[in-house]
Amino acid sequence: METKNPIKALFSLNDGGYITGFQTEFWDGKEWQATFDVSKAVEVDPAELNKIVFGATKYTGGKLVIDKDKRAELENNQPKPEPTAAELKEKYDQLQAALLELADLSLDTKK
Fold this sequence. Notes:
By secondary structure, the chain is of the alpha+beta class. It is 33% helix and 25% strand. The chain is elongated, with a radius of gyration of 27 Å.
């Protein structure tokens, strides 16, 4: 496979100017091709594309720049993963044990 450095890339941006996606040119076996308007593309090291944090990276001054505060904000706003069956079972067992303990305390005070 043919490699190229730098490679042409076209970035999709949100309203704040942060990268939300990108397209790159590719080697079709004979020549480099692009499925986008290359007049708006920039040249970038392909290895740098792997470092993009979507929603927290801007292309500024010919470089990809990650906004650390924006990255932290995005990481903190990630939805928590759904609990596993084992975690739900453990929580159920804890609640059931607590309920039984409360029932025992309630019955013991009536003596």
